[in-house]
Each structure stands twice: as C-alpha cells, then as structure tokens.
Design goal:
The two termini are 22 Å apart. The C terminus is likely disordered. This protein has 207 residues and is of the alpha/beta class. Strand 5 and strand 6 form a beta hairpin. Strands 1, 2, 3, 4, 5, 6, 7 and 8 form an eight-stranded mixed beta sheet that branches.
Length: 207
C-alpha cells in the first residue's frame, strides 16, 4: 500500500527539513498540552509528546483518509543538568537559559512519533552540543533579533545562534527539529520514498 505522509506540525523548520530530502507530505495543525509531568525525565517527556501528537494528528484526519495515511510528529527539547529548558518567556528567562548553556555541553533530544492504522512507533535521538562562553551583551543582542523567543533552549542552531556553537556530536538536523537519517530509515519501512520530483507536487500544503 502506498501511504500518504502527514506532518502533524506547522513548524517551518520541520517542513523545510522534510522538503530537503524530497519527501511528499501535507501538514496539519494540532494542539496538545505540553506541560511536563511530575518526575518525568526529559527522554520520557519528548517520547510521550511525540506519541500524543502523532495520535492526535491521526485522529483528526477524516476516517476516509486514515487507512491510507501515516502521521509523523516530533518534539524537541534542550536538556542541561537533567533539566528541560523550554522556550523563554522573557529577556530575563533567555538570559538565565543561555547563561546556563554558556561554555558548557548540553543535549538536544528530538523524539519522533509515527501513527497509522495499527501503527504506533516512537524513537528518540540525542545530540550533544558545546557552546562557547557567551557575554551578557551577546545574549541581550541575540534576544533582540527575536529568534530565541519560539525556540526550546532559547536558540536556533540554524540561525543567528550558529556563532555560539563550538561543536556538536551527533545529528545536526536533530538539533534543528528532525533527525533526518532516522526518519528516512523509518519511512523506508513503509515504502515512502525520498528524493522525489516534487516540482509539481503539493509538498508542505496545509490541511
């Protein structure tokens, strides 16, 4: 059976990553509670959210489409000292988070979830990132760019914050929002091809 891939996210970064490897897909928007549960470790947290997002996306499809669809979802978090660093709520919050990451290693965890008829798969990928020392003036100037405001851990490695990164160990695309190597292997199991000619396709169209 040729299945249609649906991305349960309106993230422009995840859209661009899937387009980068030539996958045909549509997008849909979902809304779930992303609060961390008591005593929930970072890995369990992202795995749970990826599963809940993929299931919610699948359940939102018309029944006529469900049998022929696979819904892909993901959740990314930044972890330092076993603490989940969410999106900053203010300049002070951004200063606290980036101050914690300054001159240190941290981990970026992205969990992917795939849901279809009789299919529920979750997988987490972890990348180690090393930041150089950051100055207070750099952090404030970075906040003023607007980039950190919607980013877990207060930074986007693919944007202005690239200058903060001394090294990474593991998947770069995982830090951006999707571990492409792992996704490619997963989708191959369901005969969803890569590197398609999508010039006339509606890749990334929103449902």
């Amino acid at each position: 059976m040729n299945r249609q891939l649906v991305l349960a996210s309106t993230s422009p970064r995840r859209k661009e990553l899937l387009q980068q490897i030539g996958i045909q897909f549509t997008q849909l928007s979902i809304d779930i509670n992303e609060d961390v549960k008591a005593d929930e470790c970072p890995t369990d947290y992202v795995l749970r959210l990826a599963k809940e997002k993929s299931i919610a996306g699948f359940n939102s499809l018309p029944q006529s489409q469900q049998a022929n669809s696979l819904v892909l979802a993901a959740d990314t978090t930044v972890v330092c000292d076993d603490t989940i660093l969410a999106k900053p709520e203010s300049l002070a919050d951004c200063q606290r988070i980036l101050g914690l990451l300054s001159g240190r290693e941290h981990f970026v965890k992205t969990a992917i979830g795939l849901c279809g008829t009789d299919i529920s798969i979750q997988h987490v990928v972890t990348t180690r990132v090393l930041f150089r020392e950051l100055t207070e003036s750099e952090i404030e100037a970075y906040w003023k760019t607007g980039e950190p405001k919607d980013k877990a851990g207060s930074y986007g490695i693919q944007g202005f914050a690239a200058v903060f990164v001394e090294s990474i160990t593991g998947s770069y695309s995982n830090v951006v929002g999707l571990p492409l190597s792992e996704i490619a292997k997963l989708l191959n199991q369901f005969n969803i091809p890569l590197w398609q000619d999508i010039s006339n396709a509606s890749a990334g169209a929103t449902l």
